[in-house]
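Would you mind writing out a protein's amino acid sequence and the numbers that encode its backbone to help me picture the idea?
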Amino acid sequence: MRRRKSTLLAIATFVTLSLTVVATRAEEPRNPSTAETRCVGQKIENFSLHSALGQKVSLDEFGDKQAIVVAFLGVECPLVKLYAGRLNELAKRYDERGVAFLGIDSNVQDTLTEAASFARHEQLVFPLLLDPDGAVAESFGASRTPEIFVLDREGVVRYHGRVDDQFQVGVQRPAATREDLAEALDELLAGSAVSVAETAFQGCRIGRTNSVATENPSFTYAEHIAGLLHKRCTECHRNGEIAPFPLLTYDDAQPWAEMIAEVVRERRMPPWFASPEYGKFDNECQLPEDEREMLLTWVDEGCPPGDLSQAPAPPQFVEGWGIGEPDAVFPMSDKPFPVPATGAVPYEHYVIDPHFTEDKWIWASEARPGHRGVVHHILVFAVPPGGSTANEFLKGRLIAAYAPGVPPQGLEPGRAAFVKAGTKFVMQLHYTPNGRPAEDLSQLAFRFIDAKDVTQQVESGMAINFLISIPPHKSDATFNANFRFPEDRLMLALTPHMHLRGKAFRYEAEYPDGTRETLLDVPKYDFNWQITYHLAEPKLMPKGTRLRCTAVFDNSSENPNNPDPSKTVNFGEQTWDEMLIGWFQTGSVTKP
């Protein structure tokens, strides 16, 4: 195996699913004169809690300090994990200036063992205190993690809000544009009033103890909610997968009930963006309205458990390879790639030579990360004999892919992808540092079938426009990409791809007889979720059919993810550039 660093356009990032994306537009601080500043000026009374290591700690022990930073944290919150290292840095920086840092975990679902493990893993230099009944969080008025309070020498809140503006739900800037906590501490230590005393903050809701359920509930966990969560959520919300917390049992779900209700009410979860007006898709994951109302009502009524002994058992998921026992496994290299703790990592490309001495039919493929915490996505392209590993992937010969929440590619019985003897594979990896140094050794696996068993040859393709040029401040810049089918094909799946300025995407088929049909319409495109839409029934694309992709970009300041609305944006590999790619997967009409 040999590794190749590449500066080529990484146009094949269509499965780049991410909890965080790059943006540089600063979020405005909240006006400190509003009612939302009720925490500022409040005096916090003394409290005593035990740390995750068993030590009793009281607030009044820090009476000689110039200021105390209290950070409400939770072991499973993604934003907490991103900010733990930053809080460590700040604690060290301000220690010699007389500032103490305290972490408080008020989540009912976080055990002593989990909190202690979190503190060790993150190498916290300040105590992490446990507030099991949430009384201290209640006294502060804290509701989320991470949520920051700065107390002066008298125990009065002088700052309340976020650490800085680098990380938000769905957004990760290259660096903070305003270090709110540090600026508040500097002003306070200088004897000045904190100029921005309250800032908007995001994060996970603090898990509360079970509230009193309605006496005669409309729905119970055992009878109604368990099956709903198992069907709609646990594919990702289970240990070892991308979602930040499991939802396999009542004890899993109840503490997160308010968070669940929030993302369901705002339709952030589950992610699905196809317009219901066009097309039917067999992987549709949005909640039907009756299920949505059922879930929200259950939370509103206090999460009644019902008879938990009658609750359905959690589903069983495949351990190990998702495609079953592979016929062949290939590591990306003979040694792991070192992922730094912070910073941007350029795409890495590895060339895998499987030394195929005969043609192969691939029925199932899987790109499997060695370290899921830092692998953002993997794309694998087939390079036929004589092809260049430096540019073959521009032809769209995608053979395997991984992104968090995207299952391995297993085709229907009889469907398979063909690769010639001597074919090599280019594995593209995108790494996202998570605050701790890591190593990754990803792998590629295949399952083959005999040629006599193949009834349909599957191929990937794309409609692409390299010439997009989006004017500054334009909110609805529209461009097209086209592909004409040289032979009859059956459309199987569609994957629209743009970057941070992507606003809407539509696939249309223009048939040889002049008729037109919308295959997929995504009116509110979201770069965070690169979804492949699998057609419920294959759609014939007769020879000569033109696939027309229409993409709309928002390069205005109204787009919260826009890195720079004053810039003309062209096609490029980085997220602050743009792409217009209409990926598709087709099958042959006749047996190959």
